[in-house]
Design a protein that fits this description.
The complex is a heterotrimer of chains A (286), B (330) and C (317). Chain A has helices spanning 2-5, 9-16, 18-40, 72-108, 110-125, 128-138, 144-171, 174-181, 186-223, 233-242, 251-279. Chain A has 286 residues and is mostly helical. In chain A, helix 4 (72-108) crosses helix 10. The chains are: A mainly alpha (286), B mainly alpha (330), C alpha/beta (317).
Chain lengths: 286, 330, 317
């Protein structure tokens, strides 16, 4: 099979790259867990199922129970779902906005670029958490969806910056000039000429956004500004610390959520590097 | 170069203006009556509520036209009057904040500077050989993927509870009063160490990975190849790669400030360390409107100032900016 | 000095196998000779040029011997080559425009490089200034950053830098490709000047532009698909080439004064073979108008007249 694959050089390298493989494997594992987990657990995440209160992992409660006797495993797998949802929607929104702004700024140049660039820089400098804190503090009820919007609206500058730089350098290439001279409308040029050449870069950017969104969401949740009636990995950690899991040594309550996040985000980063090696032959280990 | 600095000042000025305006705007455009909300959530009894409502309406100047409220806000800002904290009534917000700032500086400055310095050197070191890279980089990835608060939690639990080597709450023991004696200083350091370590480690991972990538990129540049072809010793090439690779890391530091501030915030929460982050959380939980605003303002000013300092540092370090050619687009 | 290359083989390691970029070349250069190395893209000339001084992965040394002034050059060993580099063999790279560290003043970079090679900068500074003057660069450039110089100025700076330690052999890789015609002439003449003033003993000038070689080279070595096609003095190559490839190459050059409305510019139809699995026998076979059945065997590179080498069966009859 490898012989046939050699024709598709990209795929071949992709599958051979250890970092990519390991990263993908870990992500798949957690995605699977997020999908299957809630189906195989018989508890409700907030239900006080263990009359004995907090207990370490056992055959009955695979990840143990919380201070209130809630099943940690159930919370964990449902939290995973929320985490992935936020990552995809929040990260996706951020990428989308960033793409739009970056493309337009890079392609048009001139005064539009200057304005957009200044705008991007301003949003970049403002510590997003501080803004989110203020806004979220005034909203009484928050859903996972709102959190996604928050994240998307504050994470886009990174993407915009990167996309703008790439568009800039691609814009002056011959094939774009050709398209422009043949009268193609600018939006079409962006999508059919520039974007495909940036595809690899875009994929890498999206992965980073994905990871970043997870971390931001976890931070927001931890401070108590996450969804008001849902469970997520960050919320788990918040409750754990709030209810003395640290002092009472209930490691099974706070270790899994943080470990999950670290594993997923770490896998994403490693995947990113692997993908970069696949796209950029110079980095490949021969 | 003047253009570069001028541009930066413009951006920071605009940002400050925007941020402060947002700070002012938000409560006014949230649904409902902010004061009534505030009082309702603070569950004050009805007679007191009535008085407080009038007081606050007057204090907010909500009985004045909007534009005048806005101007008043800026006015009091420049007089250093950020109102009075509800949570710590009647202490002025500025006083509450200034008590917290030293702790933040104590935590943030060493961890940022040390993690940046150590991380960059470590990353450069890792880029020396494929073997080193493959054994050392994963550590960097894991560290930078770790959420700040989780590392704080784990360190607190492991070193504080399990090994019982470090305290995990407060800036100093509750039994001690602040003074300049050795026992107190040691105690402060003892309390400081875990939160510092937590911030340091995550940052370290990030910088190490970043620098490693920059070095690899520089080592493949034409000037590196030329030096190699002329038989220059490896350490000269590495020195150049390092000096060139560190430039984007400087601007990277400015960009990361928002993330670092967020990280410090949650770390303070985990360790009950009385910095601005911890204060902000308490303010939110107590619906202390003024204190929230004050914290935000402080954070924003701090970040802008830090950005500015870093930009100056960049100009000093990258000789091209002084010649009027920006190495980094403004 | 003299350079002797015997049966040098350098391959490129790729996923699909070894690309036989340089497949057994043998030639020599006399003391003071400027030899042009010409051929199409992909013929192996850059591989040869770089191979003599800086052989790095994915290029792999497969065999052969290189002798400089009778001493063998350990081109396969990166560390052992270092003492030779810059002092005995030097190179003006194709990327001369970006060959200098962008964040270092040129003078500082030069002094750091020379010190690292064991040369005291102060002692060599007067000579450096003299040479800068020779190539028409003011001594102020030492105080400037590369970005402040024009392309041509950077080129000349690199030329001076690369030859400062008077190497026996200089490899000049496509140094005129990025320049306009008049600058090309100036740069080419500077190369000759360097040789005449004994800054450099011998040169290998790698280029696809034969007209430059016509101006400055003593002899020309024509390569095709990783093998040598012909080597002779410049006059001979231009006026009486014997290898069919060389003939087609020369005839495809535009000639001054000839109007091309009357005579079509002739190119050479076809493409060079892929070097992953090169064809058996003479590699020019498929495009050669004179190919016949003996060409299925690889022709040897033979001296048919004093100083004139050809690899072609037809010429050996």
């Amino acid at each position: 099979m490898m012989e046939r694959l050699k024709k598709y050089e990209f795929l071949y390298f992709a599958l051979r790259n250890t970092k990519l493989r390991v990263g993908l494997l870990i992500i798949f594992f957690f995605v699977l867990l997020a999908i299957v987990g809630p189906l195989i657990t018989k508890y409700d995440p907030f239900a006080y199922v263990n009359p004995l209160g907090p207990q370490p992992p056992s055959a009955k409660y695979w990840f143990g129970t919380t201070f209130f006797g809630q099943d940690v495993f159930t919370q964990f797998v449902l939290g995973l779902r929320a985490t992935f949802l936020v990552a995809v929607v929040g990260g996706g929104l951020g990428t989308f906005i960033g793409l739009l702004i970056g493309f337009v700024a890079g392609y048009r140049g001139g005064i539009i670029d200057e304005i957009l660039n200044m705008f991007t820089n301003i949003v970049l400098v403002i510590p997003t958490l501080a803004v989110l804190l203020i806004v979220a503090a005034y909203l009484e009820v928050r859903s996972v969806f709102i959190e996604c919007i928050f994240i998307g609206l504050t994470a886009w500058p990174w993407v915009a910056r990167a996309v703008r730089a790439q568009t800039f350098s691609l814009r002056t290439r011959e094939f774009v000039d050709l398209a422009r001279m043949s009268g193609m409308n600018p939006l079409k040029i962006i999508f059919t000429e520039i974007a495909p050449n940036m595809m690899s870069y875009l994929v890498l950017t999206f992965i980073l956004q994905f990871g970043g969104a997870i971390l931001i969401a976890a931070t927001l949740d931890f401070i108590g500004l996450g969804p008001t009636n849902a469970i997520s990995l960050g919320v788990m950690m918040q409750y754990a610390v709030m209810w003395g899991a640290l002092l009472l040594g209930m490691w099974w309550w706070f270790i899994p959520p943080g470990l999950g996040i670290t594993a997923i985000v770490g896998a994403l980063y490693v995947m990113n590097v692997g993908l970069d090696e696949v796209f950029n032959p110079k980095l490949r280990e021969m | 170069m003047r253009r570069y600095i001028g541009r930066k000042i413009l951006i920071y000025g605009l940002t400050f203006f925007l941020a402060v305006s947002i700070d002012w705007l938000i409560p006014r455009f949230m649904p409902g009556d902010p004061i009534a909300n505030m009082l309702a959530r603070a569950s004050v009894n009805s007679t007191a509520a009535q008085v407080m409502h009038e007081y606050y309406t007057h204090v907010f100047g909500l009985d004045l036209p909007i534009w005048q409220q806005y101007l008043n806000f800026w006015n009091s800002l420049f007089h250093g009057d950020l109102g009075r904290s509800v949570y710590m009534f009647p202490t002025p917000v500025v006083d509450v904040l200034s008590r917290a700032v030293p702790y933040d500086m104590f935590l943030l400055l060493p961890s940022i500077l040390l993690s940046w310095y150590a991380g960059n050197h470590f990353g450069a070191f890792a880029a020396r050989s494929k073997w080193l890279d493959n054994t050392v980089s994963p550590i960097g990835y894991i560290l930078t993927a770790t959420p700040y608060m989780w590392l704080g939690i784990v360190l607190a639990w492991f070193f504080g509870i399990v090994l019982d080597q470090f305290p995990i709450a407060g800036a100093y023991s509750f039994s001690l009063r602040p003074n300049l004696s050795w026992p107190f200083i040691l105690d402060v350091l003892h309390h400081w160490f875990l939160p510092f370590a937590s911030l340091f480690l995550v940052g370290f991972g990030g910088w190490a990975i970043g620098m490693r990538n920059m070095i690899i990129y520089e080592l493949e540049a034409d000037y590196s190849r030329y030096l190699e072809a002329l038989g220059a010793p490896k350490n000269l090439i590495r020195k150049y790669a390092f000096q060139n690779g560190i430039l984007p890391q400087i601007t990277g530091l400015a960009l990361q400030l928002g993330v670092i501030v967020a990280g410090a915030l949650v770390t303070e929460v985990v360790f009950s360390y009385p910095g601005i982050g911890y204060l902000l959380l308490a303010a939110i939980q107590n619906q202390d409107y003024f204190l929230i605003q004050g914290c935000f303002l402080f954070i924003i000013i701090g970040v802008l100032l830090a950005n500015f300092i870093i930009d100056i540092a960049y100009v000093i370090v990258d000789p091209r900016t002084r010649r009027g050619m920006t190495g980094e687009s403004a | 000095m003299s350079l002797q290359v015997e049966d040098l083989k350098i391959y490129y390691q790729t996923l699909r196998g070894d690309v036989k970029a340089l497949d057994g070349v043998t030639f020599s250069i006399r003391d003071g000779e400027i030899m042009g190395l010409a051929g199409e893209s992909g013929c192996g000339k850059t591989t040869l040029g770089y191979g003599l001084i800086h052989l790095t992965p994915p290029k792999k040394y497969m065999g052969g011997c290189v002798r400089l002034d009778g001493e063998e050059l350990p081109i396969w060993d990166n560390d052992r080559m270092n003492p030779f580099r810059y002092k005995r063999v030097s190179i003006i790279p194709q990327y001369a425009m970006s060959a200098m560290n962008p964040t270092r003043k040129i003078g500082k970079m030069a002094s750091e490089l020379l010190s690292a090679k064991g040369v005291v900068f102060e002692t060599i500074l007067p000579e450096l200034l003299r040479r800068l003057d020779l190539v028409d660069l003011s001594s102020d450039v030492l105080n400037m950053y590369p970005i402040e110089l024009s392309g041509g100025m950077k080129q000349r700076m690199v030329m001076v830098l690369s030859t400062l330690l008077n190497p026996s052999l200089l490899v000049a890789d496509e140094i005129t490709s990025a320049l306009d015609v008049s600058t090309q002439q100036a740069v080419a003449e500077m190369l000759v000047e360097f040789r005449d003033r004994d800054f450099v003993k011998s040169m290998v000038v790698v280029t696809h532009d034969i007209s430059i070689l016509y101006q400055i080279a003593d002899s020309i070595l024509v390569m095709y698909a990783g093998k040598l096609a012909e080597k002779a003095s410049t006059g001979t190559i231009i006026n009486s080439p014997r290898h069919p490839y060389t003939k087609l190459l020369i005839s495809s050059l535009p000639k001054v004064g000839v109007r091309y409305a009357e005579q079509k510019l002739k190119g050479i139809p076809g493409n060079p073979p892929m070097l992953l699995n090169p064809p058996v026998g003479c590699r020019f076979r498929d495009r050669c108008p004179f190919a016949f059945k003996k060409c299925i065997e690889e022709p040897p590179f033979i001296e048919v007249e004093p100083g004139h080498f050809v690899a072609c069966w037809k010429e050996l009859d």
